[in-house]
Amino acid sequence: MLKGGCRLNGKKRCLLPLLLAGVLFSCTVTFSAAKKIPTILVCPKTLDNSFWGNVRAGAMTAGKEYGASVIWKGPTVETDIAGQLAIMEDFVNKRVDAIALAATDVKALYAPVKKALNAKIPVVSFDSGLDPDPTLCLIATDNYKGAFEAGEALARLIGQKGKIACIPLISGASTSILREKGFNAAIARYPGIRLVAVQYSESDVAKGMAVAENILTANPDLDGIFAANEPGAMGAAQAVKARGLSGKVKLVAFDASPMEIEMLQNGTIQALIVQNPYNMGYLAVKTCIEALNGKKVPKRIDTGVAVVTMDNFYEPKIQQLLYPAGNSGK
Fold first, then answer.
1. Measured between alpha carbons, how far is 180 from 177 in angstroms, rounded to an integer?
2. Residue 221 backbone phi and psi in degrees, to 5
3. Angstrom distance (rounded) from CA 159 to CA 156
4. pTM of structure
5. Where are the domains of the chain?
C-alpha cells in the first residue's frame, strides 16, 4: 500500500479525485465563458436627423466598452407616440435587461415605463423625461438653462428690443416645454422685446419652413427667431435665406447638425445652442449597466450645453463639441 491509501493495483481509485477536480474546473470555465451578455433597448424619439445619430454612436460605443448588446429602435417620426408605445410594450414583454428611453410624450409613456419597472427591468430616461418621472435617472441637457441662454443670445443680437418669434418642437414633449419656459423667462427680462408668434415645427423641416414663412409674412418687421431644435432650425433658416433676410432676421437655434454649422458659418444662423448627444447616448447605456450591477445611480445627469457663435467657433473645446468624430471645421 502506498502513502495516501492507494493500492498500486487500484489506479482508478487514485485517479478518481483528480478526475472530479478536472470536471469541476471545466464546469467553472464553461460557466464563466457563458456569462450572460445584458441586452439594453435604447429607444430614441426618432431615428431621423444627426442629433439622434450622434446619440446612437455614443450608445453603441458604451455597449462595446461595457460588454452589452445594444438594440437601437425608435419611431420614424417624433410625433409617433403610438409607435413608441408599441416598441416599449414589445421589448418589456421580451424581457430585455434594461431600457434607456427618450420619451415622445411626458404622460403617454408613463404606463409602459411603470410596467417595465414592476417587472424589475431598470429604465433610465435620456434627452426627455416623464411627468411624473419614475425612471431611475434622467440623462439630458438642462433644457431650461439652454433655452434661457438662447433667449439671452437673441436679446443681445437684436439690441434688446424688437419683435421675435419662437418655433418650439412638439406640444406635450418635455424637451419642448422646458425650452419654451426657459426662452420665455429670458426674454421677459427685456421690456423692449415682444414675442409676436409661437408656432410648432412638429420636428419636421418642411413644417418648420412653412411656419417660419407664415411668421415672416405676418410680421415683415420681425427681428429674430428662436428655433428649438434641428428640424425647426433648418426650416427657419431656409425660409430666412429664401427671402434674402440672412443676417437681418437674427436666428438662434438648438443643436449642431452639419447643415446648421454651415448656416452658422455663412451667416444665416447667428448662434447655436449645442448639446452633447454623443455623451448622452454613452451615459444612458453606462447608467443602465451600473443599475444592472446593483450600483446606486444619480437621479439627474446634466450633459451640458454651450452657446456657439463665430466668435468662439474655432476654440478647441468648441471644435471638439461640434465634431466629436474629430473632423475639424477649420
1. 5
2. -100, 25
3. 5
4. 0.81
5. 39-141+277-298, 143-274
Q: CATH code for 39-141+277-298?
A: 3.40.50.2300
* Residue 20 backbone phi and psi in degrees, to 5: -65, -40
Query: Which residues, including other chains, have CB under 8 Å from residue 228's CB and lie 6 or more apart?
Result: 147, 166, 167, 168, 169, 175, 176, 179, 180, 183, 201, 253, 254
Contact 103, 123 (CB under 8 A): no
Is pLDDT above 60 for 7? no
Question: What is the rounded distance in angstroms from the CA atom of residue 109 to the CA atom of residue 128?
Answer: 11
pLDDT of residue 172: 87
According to the model, what pLDDT value does residue 213 have?
Answer: 98
Distance of CA 6 to the CA centre of its chain: 68
- Give CA–CA dist 272/257, Å, rounded: 10
Q: Which three cell numbers stand for residue 311?
A: 466668435
- Mean pLDDT, the chain, whole residue set: 90
Contacts of 155 (CB under 8 A, 6+ apart): 186, 187, 189, 190, 193
Angle between helices 277-292 and 49-66 (to 10 degrees): 40
The helix or strand, by DSSP H or E, that contains position 40, with its residue range, turns out to be strand 39-43
Pick the CATH number of 143-274 from 3.30.390.30, 3.40.109.10, 3.40.50.2300, 3.40.190.10: 3.40.50.2300
Please write the tens of the pLDDT for every residue from 65-105: 999 999 999 999 999 999 999 999 999 999 999 999 999 99
What pLDDT is recorded for position 16? 45
Residue 325 is placed in which grid cell?
468624430
pLDDT at 325: 64
